C-alpha cells in the first residue's frame, strides 16, 4: 500500500487540468488509470471523497484539500472541512481544552 | 557590485489576492498593507528580488523534493496553481541566480537548480498586488518548508548568511531585495482548521510573538524559539516562518522599518530598509 499514490492523484488534479476533467467525467476510470496504482481500499475512499479515512491513512492534508477546492469526488471545500473536523473531533476537543487551560 | 538594499516579508494567501483583484471589501485591509510594502519596495530602488518561498506541491513532487533549490532561467510565469488569479510573466535574474548557487555550493550548501519552472501563488499572488507591472526581476529560492522533513531554523538562518556573502561577492551591478513569503501560524485542510473554514490559525499568539521579535530585530530568539514542536502546534503551513528566518540571515539583525500583523490571519507584512 502506498499513500503516495493517493497524494499523487490529488496533486495531479491541480497540475493537470485534463486529469481533473477525467476525474470529473469518469472518476472510477481516472483513478484506476493512475500510476502508481492505488490499492482497492484507497481507490474506494478517494471515489467516496472519504478524506477523513484517507487522512488517517497518512495522506497529506494540503493535497487532500485540493479535491475539495476542485470539487472532485463529491467534495466541496465546505464538505471537505466538515469531514476532517468530524474525523478529528476528539483531537480537536483535546486541543481546545489545552488552549483553555493555557489561557485560564 | 551587488548590494542588499532591503528586505520584505510578504503573506501570500491566494484568496486575499483574489479579493483584492475583484475589489471585494474583504481584501481592503490586506490591500492597504500590500500598498505599504509597495511604497517600501519603491524606496529600495531594487533591480532584483530574491524570494525565499515554499513550493506548494506544484513544482516538486514526483521527480524529487529538494530541501533547497534556486530557479535559474530568463523568465517564468504563473501562478501555476490558481488560474483564477491574473496570469503574470516575470523576468528571472538568471545571472545573479547562477552566481548565488555557485557561491552557496562552494560554501557546502547543497542547493539544487531548476532551469524550467513556473512559480505558484506563493510568489505571484503577493507580487501581482505589490508590483503588478512586474518591474523587478526575481530569483525564486525554494525551501522545503511544507513537506516533512523540514530543514532546521538554524540551517535556514545560516543559508541566509551565506546568501548575503554570495550577493556581496558578486561583481554584478545589482540592487537586491531579499524577500520571504509565508505565514507564521496557518493550517490548510488539516485537523487544526477553524470551525468555519478549511483553513485556520491554530497559534495566533505565536504569530504575534514572531511579529514582536521581528519588530525588535531579535533574530536569535526567533531562531531559538522556532522548534519543530512549535511548528507542529502552529499548523501545517507554519514552516513558512523558515523562509523569513532565511531572509533574516541576509542582513545584520535590526528592527523592521515597517511591520504590521494580522493576528486572525497568523501572519505579518514587513519591510526593512537597509540603506
What does this structure look like?
The complex is a heterodimer of chains A (104) and B (275). Chain A is built from eight helices and no strands. Chain A has helices at 3-15, 17-25, 27-32, 40-47, 51-56, 61-69, 77-87, 89-103. Chain A starts with a helix and ends with a helix. In chain A, helix 1 packs across helix 2 (17-25), helix 1 (3-15) crosses helix 6 and helix 6 runs antiparallel to helix 7 (77-87). The longest helix of chain A is centred in the last third of the chain and has 15 residues, at 89-103. Chain A has one domain (3-103): Protocatechuate 4,5-dioxygenase, Chain A. Helix content of chain A is 74%, strand content 0%. With 104 residues, chain A is mostly helical. Chain A is elongated and about 55 Å long. The model of chain A has no long low-confidence stretch (mean pLDDT 95). By secondary structure, chain B is α/β, with parallel strands linked by helices. Chain B has one domain (3-184, 238-273): Protocatechuate 4,5-dioxygenase, Chain B, CATH 3.40.830. Chain B is 36% helix and 21% strand. Chain B has nine helices and twelve strands. Chain B has an eight-stranded mixed beta sheet with strand order 6-3-7-2-8-1-12-11, sandwiched between helices. Chain B has a two-stranded antiparallel sheet with strand order 4-5. In chain B, strands 9-10 form a two-stranded antiparallel ribbon. In chain B, strand 11 (258-262) and strand 12 (267-273) form a beta hairpin. In chain B, helix 3 (94-106) crosses helix 5 (153-169). Chain B is globular and about 50 Å long. Chain A binds chain B through residues 7-8, 11, 14-15, 55, 60-65, 68, 77-78, 80-81, 84-85, 87-88, 91-92, 95, and chain B through 56-58, 61-62, 80-81, 146-147, 188-193, 195, 197-198, 202, 236-237.
